[in-house]
TrEMBL record:
Biased composition (Basic and acidic residues): 181-193
Organism domain of life: Bacteria
Glycoside hydrolase family 65 N-terminal domain sequence ranges: 20-275
Start and end residues of each stretch annotated as Disordered: 177-198
Keywords recorded for this protein, A-Z: Glycosidase, Hydrolase
Any one GO molecular-function label of the UniProt entry: hydrolase activity
Residue ranges occupied by any Glycoside hydrolase family 65 central catalytic domain in the UniProt entry: 330-673
Coiled coil start-end: none
Family: Belongs to the glycosyl hydrolase 65 family.
The name this protein goes by in its record: Glycoside hydrolase family 65 protein
Entry-linked Pfam families: Glyco_hydro_65C, Glyco_hydro_65m, Glyco_hydro_65N
Domain Glycoside hydrolase family 65 C-terminal residues, every copy: 683-743
Amino acid sequence: MALITADRERFPNTPWQLVETRHQPGSAGTLETLFALGNGHLGIRGAHWAASDADLPGSFINGLHEIWDIKHAENAFGFARTGQRIIYIPDANNFTVIIDGESLTLAESAVLDYRRSVDFATGIYECRITWLCRSGATVTTTERRAVGFASRGSLGISLEVASDREVSADVTSSVINRQDQPVEDHSAHDPRRAGRHAGRVLLPVRTDGGDGSLRLSWEAAESGQRVGIAVDHWTSAGHQPFETVAGEDDSSVRYVLAVRADEPFRLEKSVSYAAGRGVQDSERDAAEAAEAGLRSVEDIFTESREHYREYWDTSDIVVGSQSELQQAIRWNLFQLAQATARADIAGIPAKGVTGSGYEGHYFWDQEVYLLPYLTYTNPDGARQVLEFRHDMLPAAKIRAKELSVDGALFPWRTINGLEASAYYAAGTAQFHIAAAIAFATNRYLWASGDETFREGMGAELLIETARMWSSLGFFGKDGLFHIHGVTGPDEYTAVVNDNLYTNVMARFNLRTAAALDHPGIEDAERELWEQAANRMQLPFDDDLQVYSQDNDFMTLEPWDWTTPRSKYPLLLNFHPLVIYRHQVLKQADTVLAMFLQWQDFSANEKRRAFDFYDPITTGDSTLSACVQGIMAAEVGHPEAALEHFTNAVFIDLDDTHGNTIDGVHIASTGGVWSSLVSGFAGLRDQGHLPYFDPRLPAEWETLSFHLKIQGRLLLVELDSGALTLSVRTGGPLDVDVRGQVHTIGEEAVRVALDPFEVPERTVFPSGPPTASLPIVGFRA
C-alpha cells in the first residue's frame, strides 16, 4: 500500500524536501526511516523526541557491532561461526516536555498545527508542533537536528519552547542506551530484519555528569568495541539545569523554569560520539575522545549546509516536467549521500546508518549497486570502500583455504571480515561477490585513472579473486570451464551448476587479471586464466534461443502464477526447497549479467533474455526493479522501463516491500542513480571510450546530470532529440555516442538522436504474466 504518494495533502510534493503536514498514527516506524539523518559514519533515525511517539528509535555508528557464536542445529565443516550485528548506540534524541503539569505527546495532547521536514538542500531536520495545553496555553515546540560532516561523529539538536502566555515548563533532555532496553523482537520469521541479543551488550565504563554535561562510555561485551559520547547543553538566558543524572542506561539533564510569552526557551544539545579504530587503538577513554570532537550546534548545522551545497552542485539529477518523480529522485540521492559521505575506510551497510535491517552487514550491494554512484560522483569515496575490501584480504585468504580454493574468498555478509551468513545456500554459495569486487575495482580504475591504486591494492584484489575462480572451477570432458555448486544473484535458485551470471562475471575477472602487467603473475598462471575465460561454459537453450540462468533452469517446473499476492515475498511463505524446484526468480540474474557485461552479448540476445526472464521475476528483492528497468530501456521496451524505474524510486517512500521500518534500501537508491545514468541516458563503461545510447522516456522533457570521469567533470544533458555534452573542468574527452566518436571540450557538443525503433516483444510459451510488485499509483 502506498504511503507518500497516497496522501499528497499530508506529504506535499516539494522538490527539495520531504514534508509531513499532519500526524497520523500507524506509520511511525517507517517515517522514522524516511526522516533519518546520517553521514555514512553516524546515523540517527527520524523519531519524534517524546518516547510515547516513537516506534523504533535509535542511532547507529557504521561498523560498531557485537558478536556471538552461531549455533547450528546440525553442524558441518566450514559453516559460519561468528555472528555480527550492528549496535544501537546510546541515543541522544530524547526529550520530555511538561507544560503546567501536562506531558506533551502526540498520542495524548491536543495538536493545533504540525509540520516536520527534512531538507535535502541543507540536511537539516525540523519538526514544529503547536499544542493546545489543558491549562489553556498555546505552546509551540520546534526541534531541529543535523549531523556533522567535517566532524563526522557530531550531532546537533536544538529544541525551542514558545508560549502565548507564561507557563511552567519542565524539560528533560536524555541519553538512552537503547541496545539494552527490552523491545519487541522484530526478527521473527523474517531474515531481512535484525534480531536482538539475549544478554547485556553494552557494559558501562564511564558514567560522569554535572552542570548539564555528560561524559559516558561503554564496551561491547563480546566484540570489545568501545563507544563514547560527550554531551553539552546550552540554554537561552543562561538557565542552569535543575539536575544532571548520569547512568549506565539512562542519563538526563533537567530544566525547570517559567517560559514567558515574549521569551521562548531554547535548548541546544551538542553531541559527539567516538568509536572505531581510533578509540580501539588508544588508551584514552572513549568519552574523552568524544569530548575532543564537541562542536557548537550552529557549527554542526553550518557543516551540514556547506556539505550539501557542494554535493548538489555536481550530484543533482534533474528530470524536466516530472515534479513528483523529481522529489523522489532527490530523496534517493540524499540517502546515497547520507549513507556514504563520511564512511571513510569502511563498508556501506545494506541499510546505511538508518536502521538495523540485515544486521548492519556489508554485501555485494556496495560494489554492484553503490560503487557506480560513488565512482562517478565521489571517486575518493569509491576508493575508500575498495581499500576497506582490501583490508579484508588476510581474512578472505584464510576463508578460501577453509573452502578448499586458492586466492581470496570474501564473505557474503559481514562487518568484521568473517562470514556471518549461517544459511550457506543463500550465503557462502554466492561466490559471485568476488567478481563484484573485481568489477568495482576495474570500474574505479577505468573511470579514475588511479595508477597508484592499480599497481597496488587494485592489482591484489583482481589477482586474488582470479586465483579463487581458477581453482573453484574445472575443465570438463567437453573441454569447457565449469563452475559448480554456486548461487547467483537470484536466491530463489540455489546451489546450481554453471550459473550464467557467475560464469560471465568470473570470465571478466579472469580476463582482467590476466591482462595485468604485474610481477606477481607467472606465465603459467596467466595462461590458465586466459584459457578458463575463453572456454567458460555459458548455458544456452537451443529450443528457446535464450541463455539459461544455469545448466538446469530450463528443466524446472514453472511457478504457479495464480499464487495470491498475499503469499509474496515467497521467501516468507514457502520453504526454500519448494521455491528452488520451480522456475521463478527473486531478482534479475541473467539480465543483470547482460547489463554489467554489455559488450559480450548481442542486442538480440539481450532482448530475448529480457523478454523471457522479466515475466517470471517476482521483484521480491529490492535490487531487481532498477536492473529490470535499465535493461527494458536498452532492449526497447520504454513503458516497462518507466514502470520498473517508478517502482524502484518509490520502494521506500511508499514502503512497497513492507520493511522500510528497518532502514532505507541503500542498494536500491544506488540502483535509482544507475537507472537514470545507465538506463535512460544509456551510459556504458569499461570499454574503449565512455559510451552513450540514450533512451529518454517520451513523458520526460529533459534529463541532466554530471559525471566525474577520467579527471573531468562531464555535464550530460538529454532531451527528446539530442544528447548535449560539455566538459566543465579538465581537458577534452572522447565519447562514443551510438557508434560515433565525439571530442568533448568546454564548448557544448550537441549530438542529434534518431528515434529508437521499438521491437515487438518476443513471445515464449509461458503461463500468466509477471507477479512483479504492482507499480506505485502515480501520475506524471
